[in-house]
Amino acid sequence: AQSVTQLGSHVSVSEGALVLLRCNYSSSVPPYLFWYVQYPNQGLQLLLKYTSAATLVKGINGFEAEFKKSETSFHLTKPSAHMSDAAEYFCAVSSDGSGNTGKLIFGQGTTLQVKP
Amino acid sequence: DAGVTQSPTHLIKTRGQHVTLRCSPISGHKSVSWYQQVLGQGPQFIFQYYEKEERGRGNFPDRFSARQFPNYSSELNVNALLLGDSALYLCASSPWNNEQFFGPGTRLTVL
Q1: CB-based contact (8 Å) between B96 and chain A?
Q2: Do B45 and A43 touch (CB under 8 A)?
Q3: What DSSP letter does each residue of A49-105 carry, written as one string?
Q4: What is the Cα–Cα distance from B37 to B25, expressed in whole angstroms?
Q5: Other Cβ atoms within 10 Å of B77 Cβ, number
Q6: Burial class of residue A64 (count of CB atoms within 10 Å of its CB; 0-12, 13-18, 19+)
Q7: Are residues B104 and B9 in contact, defined by beta-carbon separation less than 8 angstroms?
Q8: What is the pLDDT tens value at each position of chain B, 111 positions in all?
Q9: Phi, psi for B86 (deg, rounded to 5)
């Protein structure tokens, strides 16, 4: 069975500092991996995805993530935090190896706080 | 292009009642998935429908059911509501093998 663990339910950084949100996954088949962002009282917006192509994935708003099979990790980074990055971030894995991405397993989420 | 739309935005029900939530996918998307997001947690998968057939079901009781219509819109039904059903219900649409696009959700409160 697939699962996702996000290390750290709350991360606080200063504006301009590096953002690092950690995600480890467990999957018995080659995974598809996703990072989503959720602003208060809104749905989820896709930041980036890994679907077995390049291991370094670039997304929107300056975010990127690196797929490391040996470490079963897919950590999200951004070189310089902006105040507008404050939100809830979710890592997710697709739940089967068929290419179907309609059944996602989500982590518990990490709240990113950006201090001025 | 319009995104995924959900109705209603908010809903208040009492225990034991029934509720129907609706979702319209992005044009051309044939897959619709439903998720439950309890406050402070990540979304949990409830159902996936593709081409009007159920393609997956999460660990939810039989009180939860869904269907997909010929125009690919979908309904989620919950019977005999419990306090624990209070949550944000998210609908997402996608082609079969690409990322899901989420709607804004329906906030259900059960009193």
Answers
A1: yes
A2: no
A3: EESSS-SEEE-GGG-EEEEETTTTEEEEEESS--GGG-EEEEEEEESSSSS--SSEE
A4: 19
A5: 13
A6: middle
A7: yes
A8: 689 999 999 999 999 999 999 999 999 999 999 999 999 899 999 999 999 999 999 999 999 999 999 999 999 999 999 999 999 999 999 987 778 999 999 999 999
A9: -60, 125
Q: Which residues contact B88 (CB under 8 A, 6 or more apart)?
A: B36, B37, B39, B105, B106, B107, B108
pLDDT digits (tens, 9 = 90+) for A78-87: 999 999 999 9
CA-closest candidate to residue A78, choices A52, A54, A114:
A114
The reply to whether B74 touches chain A by the CB within 8 Å rule is no
Nearest CA in chain B to A50: B99
From CA A111, how far away is CA A12, in angstroms rounded?
8
* Closest chain A residue to the Cα of B107, Cα to Cα: A41
B56 and A109 within 8 Å at the Cβ level: the answer is no
In which residue ranges of chain A is pLDDT below 50? none
Of the candidates A43, A86, A42, the one whose C-alpha atom is nearest the C-alpha of residue A61 is A86
Coil, strand, or helix at residue A112? strand
